[in-house]
Design goal:
alpha+beta, three-stranded antiparallel β-sheet, 3 helices, 6 strands
């Protein structure tokens, strides 16, 4: 996820170089169009990256809230709950508690998904939609 700062630095560098060369009259019309297209493509890439990052963060947040409320989540075909695991919020990892069968198990929250409940899928989708609307 360290790609965004690099892309932003490149974007700013190209933008500044474009204006410096424009002031000296060293850019013709074809180069202006090419520079504009390059900046547009870079802007679309940054927007796409930010959107995907936002979706991943939102998924991790919802999983974290589900875990903290006592719900079950599934990580690598293992049912994870607050009874047997601790959540480390700094790294978003789930670590098995000392005196439980899950001792020494470590899962990243990014690789987990919500365990299906006994309620219907429609209720689950409605609950998720309500959570998203609150934010």
């Amino acid at each position: 996820m360290a790609l965004l700062p690099i892309v932003i630095v490149i974007f700013i560098t190209i933008f500044l170089l474009f204006f410096i060369l424009k002031d000296f009259g060293m850019i013709n019309k074809k180069q202006k169009i090419l520079g504009g297209v390059a900046l547009l493509i870079l802007s679309v890439f940054i927007g796409y990256y930010a959107y995907n990052k936002s979706q991943l963060d939102q998924k991790a947040y919802l999983l974290q809230m589900n875990f903290l409320r006592g719900g079950d989540i599934i990580c690598e075909n293992t049912i994870v709950n607050a009874k047997d695991f601790n959540l480390v919020t700094g790294t978003l990892t789930l670590i098995g508690k000392e005196k439980s069968p899950a001792k020494n198990l470590v899962f990243s929250l990014q690789n987990c998904k919500r365990a299906p409940n006994k309620e219907s899928k429609q209720y689950e989708n409605q609950e998720l939609q309500e959570q998203l609307e609150k934010e």
